[in-house]
Amino acid sequence: MPRKSTPAAHPQPATTHPYPPSSAPIERLPLELKLRVVSYLSTADAHNLASVSKPLQNAAESVIWSKVDMSLPTNWDKQILLWEDSMPDWWAQHSLTPEMEDTLVEFKSTMDMEGGSIGWSRGADSDICWNLRNLKFITRIKQVSTALTSHPSRGNWVRELRLELPQMRQDRLEDKSTQMDTLKKIVEIVRGNLRIVRLGSPEVNLRDDYSQTRYFDSPFFLDYIGLTERNVGKLHTLELVLEGSISFQAQMENIVNKIETSTIKKLVLNPSWSGSSWFPDSNDDPIPKIPSLKTLKTLHLNHLHPRSVEEACGLIGSADSLDELKVRFTDDGESAWDVFHDRAIKTFREHKTLRRIEWYGGLQARWWFEKLAQSGFDNVEVLVQNQAIGCESETFIENTLIPPFSSLRTILIPCRTPKWYRHLSPPDWAKAPPPRNSISPHVISHLLEAPNLLAVQFSSLSSLTINEVLDSSQWCDKRVNGVLIRSYINEITGEELFHFRRLELLIVQPKIYDSTYEDRYDGMKECKGDEVDHRWVDHTSFRNATVPPPILKKVYKTSGEKLDWTTPGRGISLPETAWEVLRSWRVKLPDKGLEGRKIVTRRMARDLQ
């Protein structure tokens, strides 16, 4: 009997792996890929990653060490917990001299535990407070120096360095030469790849005795620690605090001579520079000549005093390629326009490359800007102005300053505060008088002087502040509202039709404007624009009369345009049939005077109530 053949066993399928065996382990991934991955992480997440993943530790440190900040918080004299939390660090990691121990003991005994501040009435308390600040600064320097010395590769990741001008009374703290030597070592490690250097803080309120405790001015200090033109060739952003007792011109010469300015594109000047001793008494006095800053693109002037506008204009004139100017004006009650002199102001107004101006401050700052903006600025396209607008009903173009800039295209107003959402319902005094859809004559006259203005955009003062120009399709997504502007012109008769489309946000998530909810912003923003309760409101004007909706529909139908447009424009042409529709409607109306919404301020509102 023939033997039965057994069927051949089926081959077992090979075990499949999610990644082929040739794939490289994480240790072998190129550094560029690791850096790209960690670039999406926050600093806190990068810290966690560096502590748990050895292969990604070096890449995570590129985020952790991208910025080295050795400055103190702006409210350093108010934060009790900051000092209490940090004090064990000082005792544990660094041996303190008897003088330092006395400083800490005296500081604790003078703290006001209820208010969390230090008494300023006695000079001794003031000395203790400043000495403690310097002690914290010295401790921070030691910590950074130890971390960089133990791992020199960290210095390659540092792109931004923030320091403070040393302030100390030498009979109470360490010898200043020791502190400077430590700073020099830090700078020597990190300066090769530095892009941004910040010295001082714009928010710190400098006291009268500040200059008595400081022994360096900014340019000399940066030169002393090794941040000079010979070794910081990649620097593009410089932030300085200038000394009020030294001439502004002399300090700018020191900056140009001691620091490499041929690569600097952004310059930030902070407090006490505005207290400079020079200002002219008449138009015949010479204006100080500022060294040329040919590569400067952006200039920020914080706490600018009215009597320092001359110097600011000289600095602006020396920057031939300046593109953006940001000013935070100091409102100290100064109201004498005669401190502005024609020659310096002319240099400012006639700047050929300036495209963007940001002007912040209170009502006094707006008054100064109105004076400055009466003429000139022919190349400015974007204007950011800070105004005290508190509720949705105030976000009308009628309450907006429209300067006569011939190239101006967009006005940005970061106006809302965390309290803004409480006033969504407009009070009676803020409602537009009938007809609600009109345009005020003064707005039209201002628009004729700004022939290229297309939009006014209102945004928030919280962490969601939008300082860039957005397309109107993104307004709802960004919780921004505003006004789009169109004007139609008949080139033969000179007739003009103005049509505004105003976006109203009817229901807004209140917490999105509160900085305490910063960690949850991303979840709040998941609600897209089409889900936000909003509406577009039309405002029109033809021969000082509001065009009713039926007539407006006929006009757009004859022209082939959409009534619900979202693309602004100026000087658009219309067919003659559209103008005939408007004329036949307007001729039937009596000339009953000028219509439009009046400017209503909150001060006026109190008088009306």
TrEMBL record:
Domain F-box span(s) in chain numbering: 23-68
Pfam families per record: F-box-like
PROSITE patterns assigned: FBOX (PS50181)
Region (Disordered) location: 1-23
Domain of life (superkingdom): Eukaryota
Biased composition (Low complexity): 1-17
UniProt protein name: F-box domain-containing protein
